[in-house]
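Handout for the seminar on molecular recognition.
Each group receives one record of this type.
Step one: identify the two inputs.
Step two: read the structure output and locate the region that could contact NAP.
Step three: write two sentences on what you found, then compare them with the reference statements printed after the record.
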Amino acid sequence: MTVILRLAMIGFGNVGQEFARLLDRKREWLLKSKGLDVEVLVISTRSKGSLMSKRRLDTARAVEELRKGSLRGYGSEYTELSPIELIGKCDADMMIELTTLDIESGQPATDHIKKAMNMGMDVVTANKGPVAFHYDDLARLARSNGVKFRFEGTVMDGTPIFNLVEKTLQGCEVTGIQGILNSTSNFVLTEMASGKTMDEAISKAQGMGLAEADPAMDLDGWDAAAKITALANVLMGAGSDPKKVERNGIRGLSADDVRASANERTKWKLLASAERDGGSIRTFVGPETITPDSPFWSVDGTSSAVTLKTDLMGDLTIIESGPMLTQTAYAIFSDMLLVVDSIRAGTLQ
Ligand SMILES: NC(=O)c1ccc[n+]([C@@H]2O[C@H](COP(=O)([O-])OP(=O)(O)OC[C@H]3O[C@@H](n4cnc5c(N)ncnc54)[C@H](OP(=O)(O)O)[C@@H]3O)[C@@H](O)[C@H]2O)c1
């Protein structure tokens, strides 16, 4: 039997549009293998208007209209309702939250998620703000409303970390976490090790679309702080937020420091860590040198990696090489299917 799954997409930028293309590409597979017909009923943007319909929207046409600058040309489905109003009025079963990250508070994404959960919708997001700032509240709200909340794309794109621990490492306790979680700072350090100044490396990263015009969030360790908080909150019950992370970025490193370490067979990396400290969890981000025996030795350029320290499985290191947008879109896709599978199995998560 085919089941129709209706989505509200709040935020329809790079990741949202790539996810919509992935849905089109996998439409036949979804029907044949999962008995699932996925319809997008809502598309919401901040500055280019929104669409709401009772029937399937043509996402490829929406992308075309966005290229022209506004969704207005799409037709009578056009609306200027806010995301909260759209979530309140639409007929969707699941909300996909893909608005811009706010590193200060995790808003307005957290409010979008709360509204959707209170409307009885399952939620999937790649926005790390809500998980870094409000994970405990959101997990509680999901449970009390009997809905699912998944967020694999928030850390290392589609690389399975949260889902790996939850689904494959059942009963295994995560006792510590360490990772290279910010690809821009890793790219800058790799370029500096090969002789560039920090400014030259940053310009190259900006030219490749890797770094923002203001790269502070990456270079000052904020992005890594948000990601280690998300990991520590979910996997270690830290109940923390990014402002509590002891944080140092890479700006204090000179080109000479980085070149000298290369001559000594060491490498500077921006490491993000979480470890038990008495009854609480200590989270910290800062530049450290590693040696060739480190599992992170080969993690250069835009790659990322995380080591999970566990009580039963020792240390597990997962490396993501050269991430692309497809990986993040896939995180949304696989989370969507996990939600559907758990609803069908009648399980809580
Ligand atoms: N890009 C990646 O590779 C990647 C990887 C992992 C996680 N993520 C996360 O995924 C999320 C989406 O990333 P992206 O690259 O797709 O961002 P993006 O291209 O900047 O798109 C963001 C979308 O959200 C809309 N939006 C922003 N604020 C909004 C608001 N207050 N209300 C309604 N809509 C709003 C934007 O509308 P306007 O265009 O009108 O502003 C746009 O449609 C972010 O949280 C990001 O941190 C991205």
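Reference statements: The longest strand covers residues 267-277. The two ends are 23 Å apart (CA to CA).
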